[in-house]
Amino acid sequence: MVLPRMHRVLVPSRTDMSGKNFRVQHTGKRTNIEGKHVTNKVLLATPDNEYQLMRADLTYVDMPQHLSLHEPTQNVEFVYFPNRGMVSQVVVTKDGRTVEVGVVGSEGYVGAGLAVGLSRSSVREVVQIAGDGFRMIGSALERILQSAPQLQMILARHTGLQGMQVAQTAACNRLHDIQQRLSRWLLMTQDRVNLGMLPITHDFIATMMGTDRSSVSVAAGVMQKKGIIEYVRGAVKIVNRRKLQSSACECYGVIQQFEDDLGLR
User: Fold this and answer.
1) N- or C-end of the chain: fewer Cβ atoms within 10 A?
2) Residues 116, 200 within the same domain
3) Tell me, what's the pLDDT at 94?
4) Which pLDDT does position 206 carry in this prediction?
5) pLDDT of residue 86
6) Considering the domain boundaries, does residue 119 fall inside one?
């Protein structure tokens, strides 16, 4: 019998960086001290004894759309572990232009620099698809990591994944056409929110991809004619994921492989 996903916990058998040493173990549901259920994969991957060190410091929070979790150059005050929804990591230029360089969902956490001793970040981290999750004061995480080596390894792996994602996204934005980039972005978004209907607009996608709305509309129109997606007011429906994968550039597969190799999927 296959247990529900939330009952599966990835536990490392030793602390090497191959990513091949994670195995699935069955365990009971996890909650914080308020009784709120945990579905964030980082928290579910943490060994029981180390999770108990964290539990009292995890505060359940709603994460509404457009909520800013962190602004560029500011000290990272909190870390967030999303249960649902998606957070965008956005670079903002002096003239106000923006481009998304990474996304975080239930597979990861926001405020990744703290795990490797960085108290600031150059990106804005903002909720783009509403959800919920858990918040922890950064100083509490730093204290806990002194007694939680497996948790520190898991968080460091995610920090490494984010760096790889930023590098691959930079290459994608420079080298691939708008339809390939849009396909890659939709796949990554769906992976994180696990929804067939994504609550996003062409204007929003254009802002995240650092391009103009008309380019996104043309690419989306072509994909709709091919039966890949369907655009309804304020949302994009993924009609055929297999075709969407074929439409994407290799960057999606590269990022996906990173996640598999690091044991974060």
Assistant:
1) N
2) no
3) 87
4) 85
5) 96
6) yes
- CA 165 from centre of chain: 10
Is position 264 within any domain? no
Which of the residues in the chain have pLDDT under 70?
A: 1-28, 261-265
Q: Is 248 helix (H, G, I), strand (E, B) or coil?
A: coil
Q: State the CATH number of the domain containing residue 76.
A: 2.60.120.10
Looking at the structure, do residues 119 and 87 belong to the same domain, yes or no? yes
Residue 264: per-residue pLDDT: 53
Nearest to 112 by CA among 61, 141, 155: 155
Kindly state the tokens that stand for 139.
Answer: 């100083």
Structure-block tokens of residue 145 = 């990591």
**What are the tens digits of pLDDT across the range 149-194?**
999 999 988 888 888 888 898 889 889 999 999 999 999 999 999 8
- Looking at 171, 198, 228, the residue that finishes a domain is 171
The answer to whether residue 21 is domain-embedded is yes
Tokens of residue 175, six digits: 């080298």
Determine the Cα–Cα distance for residues 231 and 264; give it in Å rounded to an integer: 31
Place of tokens 């655009």: 231
**What's the CATH number where 229 sits?**
1.10.10.10
